[in-house]
Write a structure and sequence with these properties.
The protein is α/β, with parallel strands linked by helices and about 170 residues long. Helix content is about 30%, strand content about 20%. The chain has 4 helices and 7 strands; from the N terminus they run E-E-E-H-H-E-E-E-E-H-H. It has helices at about 65, 70-90, 145-150, 150-170, and strands at about 1-10, 30, 40-45, 100-105, 115, 125, 130-135. Strands 3-2-1-4-7 form a 5-stranded mixed beta sheet, with helices on one face. The protein has a two-stranded antiparallel sheet with strand order 5-6. Helix 2 (about 70-90) runs parallel beside helix 4 (about 150-170). The radius of gyration is 16 Å and the shape is globular. Mean pLDDT is about 45; it is low at about 1-70 and about 95-145.
Length: about 170
């Protein structure tokens, strides 16, 4: 199982500490520092050898005032999730058992859109519960024009779906 944990600092002045106590030892930790900067992947003990890497994805700058219900920030997070997912399913030995954990230090602030849609259409709230488990992500679909009009999100989503079809085709052989 590959686990991604999204961590946010609600004050923007200090990087959020990575919380590992509820995370599976085979995990991929994703720390988003000060809302923007970069996303850094850290290697856990027993992490799949195929995931020994560090990549950086830039986020839009979001200050505390923009943090609440900011569609730009929400889209940035969804793009990151899709990029990580696409990487995982494009490995020589693809992993499609991706789980997302979400944690915010201030549970009164909505830091990502209320729901992410997964392929079976089930709605999963992403806040304000600490370390909330999201069902296996096969695609991230939001019935929201903001996301549907974003060419990057739709392109990433298409790439994920194409790769998943390739995996299923190989598995059927």
């Amino acid at each position: 199982m590959i686990v991604i944990q999204l961590l946010y600092s609600c004050h923007g002045n200090k990087p959020t500490n990575v919380v590992r106590k509820t995370v599976n030892s085979n995990s991929c930790i994703n720390s988003i520092k000060n809302y923007s900067d970069t996303v850094k992947f850290e290697k856990d003990i027993n992490l799949y050898d195929k995931l020994k890497y560090e990549k950086k994805f830039s986020l839009e700058n979001c200050n505390t005032d923009q943090f609440r219900d900011d569609p730009v920030f929400q889209k940035s997070v969804i793009k990151i999730v899709l990029k990580i997912y696409l990487y995982c399913i494009s490995l020589e030995e693809p992993r499609d058992d991706l789980f997302i954990f979400y944690r915010a230090t201030n549970t009164t602030i909505k830091t990502i859109d209320e729901y992410i849609y997964i392929m079976n259409g089930k709605k999963v709230p992403l806040y304000p519960v600490e370390n909330l488990e999201v069902n296996t992500v096969r695609s991230v679909i939001k019935e929201n024009k903001i996301f549907q009009k974003d060419k990057d999100i739709m392109s990433l989503l298409d790439s994920c779906n194409v790769q998943l079809k390739k995996i299923k085709h190989i598995q059927r052989r």
